[in-house]
């Protein structure tokens, strides 16, 4: 216990903090972080139709929907991560960008939320925004 970081020593009595292995968990997460990062140039390398402005418009729309449904912040972060991971691996057309946004938001909400919105709610919001 003496070789633990002070914060872990203070949390030692609470078993949910797993203080005795916290440093190992942190080290492992730092090591895995590099393999999970998205190449910052993926829009130039992989995508031909999608530009940074299209991605920015999609993320802005996702933020609006996220606020409307009052989702947890983690759902927004997971959504953006899935979008970037997918677009860094697969070439998509601009017409598919909205579908990618709706589906990733649904996946993230199901992963992070206790009561995620239903798909018809997401589609109703998306129809209002993109049919105008």
Short description:
The chain is built from seven helices and no strands. The protein has helices at residues 6-10, 22-36, 42-45, 52-69, 73-89, 97-112, 119-130.
According to DSSP, the number of beta strands is 0
Strand content: under 5%
| Quaternary class | single chain
Number of helical segments? 7
Helix content: 55-70%
CATH class of the largest domain: Mainly Alpha
What's the alpha carbon Rg, rounded to whole Å?
Answer: 19 Å
Can you tell me the number of structural domains?
A: 2
Which stretches are poorly predicted, pLDDT < 50 over at least 5 residues? Answer: none
Whole-number average pLDDT? 87
Q: Gap between N and C termini, in Å?
A: 62 Å
CATH topology of the largest domain: Cyclin A, domain 1
- Structural class by sheet pairing and helices: mainly alpha
CATH architecture of the largest domain: Orthogonal Bundle
Biggest sheet, in brief?
none
Choose one word for the global shape: flat
N-to-C series of helices and strands:
HHHHHHH
The CATH superfamily name of the largest domain is: Cyclin-like
């Amino acid at each position: 216990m003496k070789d633990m970081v002070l914060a872990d020593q203070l949390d030692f009595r609470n078993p949910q903090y797993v203080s005795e292995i916290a440093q190992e968990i942190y080290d492992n997460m730092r090591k895995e972080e590099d393999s999970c990062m998205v190449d910052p140039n993926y829009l130039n390398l992989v995508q031909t139709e999608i530009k940074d402005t299209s991605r920015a418009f999609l993320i802005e729309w996702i933020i609006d929907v996220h606020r409307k449904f009052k989702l947890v912040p983690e759902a927004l972060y997971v959504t953006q991560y899935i979008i970037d991971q997918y677009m860094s691996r697969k070439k998509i057309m601009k017409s598919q960008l909205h579908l990618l946004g709706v589906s990733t938001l649904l996946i993230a909400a199901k992963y992070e939320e206790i009561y995620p919105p239903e798909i018809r709610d997401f589609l109703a919001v998306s129809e209002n925004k993109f049919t105008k």
